Amino acid sequence: MHSPTNPTHSVAGLLAEIAEIGTESLRGGYYRPVFSTAELDLREWFIAHANARGLDVEIDAIGTIRAWWHLPSRVTTGAVLTGSHLDSVPGGGAFDGPLGIASALVAVDILRARGFVPEKPLAIAAFPEEEGSRFGVACLGSRILTGAITPARALALRDPDGNTFAEVLARNGFDPGAVDADLNGIRRFDSFVELHVEQGRALIDLDAPLAIGSSILGHGRWRASVRGEGNHAGTTLMTDRRDPMVAAARAIHVIRDLARAIDGARATVGRLQPVPGGTNVIASRVDFWIDVRHPDDAVTKALVEEIRSTLGVVAAEEGCHSQLIEESFSSTAHFDPVLRTRLESMLEGAPVLPTGAGHDAGILASVIPSAMLFVRNPSGISHSPEEYATDLDAQIGAERLADVLQGLLAGDHPG
Ligand code: HGY
Ligand code: MN
Ligand code: MN
Question: Which pTM value belongs to this model?
Answer without folding.
Answer: 0.94
